[in-house]
Each structure stands twice: as C-alpha cells, then as structure tokens.
Amino acid sequence: MSKTHPARMTVIRTEQLTPSLLRVVFGGDGFDDFAQRDLALNGGAFTDKYCKLVFLADGFDYPEPLNLEEVRETMPQDAWPVLRTYTVSWVDHDARELAVDFVIHGDEGFAGPWASSAQPGDVLHLRGPSGAYLPDPTADWHLFVGDEAALPAITSALETLTPGAQAVAFIEVDGPDHELALRTAADLEVHWLHRGSAGPGTTTLLDDAVRAWEWRPGRAHVFVHGESALLKSVRPYVLTEREVPRADASISGYWRRGTTEEGFRVWKSQQTEAVIRPGA
Description:
Blueprint: E1 7-18, E2 21-27, H1 31-40, E3 50-55, H2 68-74, E4 82-92, E5 97-103, H3 111-117, E6 123-130, E7 141-146, H4 151-160, E8 166-173, E9 187-194, H5 205-212, E10 220-227, H6 234-241, E11 249-255, H7 261-270
Parallel strand pairs: 7-8, 7-10, 8-9, 10-11
Antiparallel strand pairs: 1-2, 1-6, 2-5, 3-4, 3-6, 4-5
C-alpha cells in the first residue's frame, strides 16, 4: 500500500493512563496494511515510530481505499483531511493491535478531543509509520529528555534496554498523578518534573534540571523530544557544551506552544537543523 493509502483502523478500546494521557488501541482489517509497512521499517525496531492520523471532514464521501492525493485533486478544500503526527506506543503483531497515546488538555487541539470521545468501532486512518531512532546498545549510557508528548517514545525505548544498560530520564508532566510506571530491565534513574499550574511548554524545568545534573562519564546516546523550546535550550547544552556527537543524538521538537501542527511544520521548515537524528 502506498503512502497515499493510509491504513483503515478501527478503535478496539481506550485506556486512561493518567488524567491527561489517554491510550486508544486500534485493530481491524487495516492492521495488516500497517504491520506490513511497520516491518519494512527497520524490522519494526525503531522506538520513535510515528504515523499521521487522518481525520476526515463530516458530510463528504471519500474514496476507499482512501487516497490522499486523489482527495486533494478531486475534492473541495473543505473536504481535505486534517493530519496530525503521533507516536505509536506499541505494535502487537500477534494480537493484531497497535496503540496511540493522546495528551488531553480539555478541548484544546484537534486530535485530543477526538480521542476523548472515541468509542469501539470508530474508524480512523493511519498513514505511516516512519521512524529513525533506536537506543544504541554500544553506548555507555542513555539520556532521555521530554514532556508528555515524548512519553510514548521514551517508554518504548526504555522497554528495549537490556539488563545492565544505564539510563537517565527527565520527564515533565503536570503533577504526581500524571507520572507513569516505567518498565525497563535497565538501571534507570528517573527525574519527574512537575509544572503544577503552569501551562505545557511555559517552563524551563527540563533545561534547568538537565544542566544542574552531574553529567555521567562515557559515551551517551541521547533522545530529546518535546516542545520546540528544547531545541534552543537542551540541544545546545548536549551538542556544544557536552560535545555529544550528532550521530549519537536524536533531538526534535514535537510541537510548539500556541501553534497548530500546520503552523509548526512551517516554523520547522524555517529553522536550520531543526531536527537532528542519527545519521543526519
């Protein structure tokens, strides 16, 4: 199936992970299409795998299988789907299911409200996946820095680490009730940072905490993802001050405060080196 034909997925169930994090589990006939592309992507091994969620407009009849190029060429602009990028938390090929976690902040955003009202049997198309990051087992230790948007990728990466691996995580959330139980066989040092009443993307908690922490010796493999301010704070600290080679750092802004994903794409295209991935 081409990139213009997203997989047609069906909601199987939802799970409330924290007060602001909702998991939607998908399955259905479209799983095989997604799984085929997942396995073609580094054998499905990337832990930052992400997909485009395709939200169709009400009141229009769309071609099936859905072809995004055909929609844009033949249908009015009001019918063009809204795309939102989300990390795939996990893929279970035996159960033929995959999970996507949504950060919910009231009625804000587009995908969050959809997830809040999602019911078993609802249909959503998923385009992808893509990905580029996998923890390097030859590194001396691993550093993870991010907010709720990065939690799915961070938890996925931690679960791949083997006994004896060394890992440190700095994660910003609203408060103690928003922390997740992190599963890993690695020796993990985790720092949960609570923003309290401050809005997401408004604090310097992550930057302050990482800079104040005593950097470990040896070769670090680094994953820094979340609100775009991390690109201007944690990124130069890691790359310039701590001299982590770019090949050992996956650093990306997942979102930007006050900007829709469409606006965020424009902003990122205007930045120099806005996304740094292994081998880039």
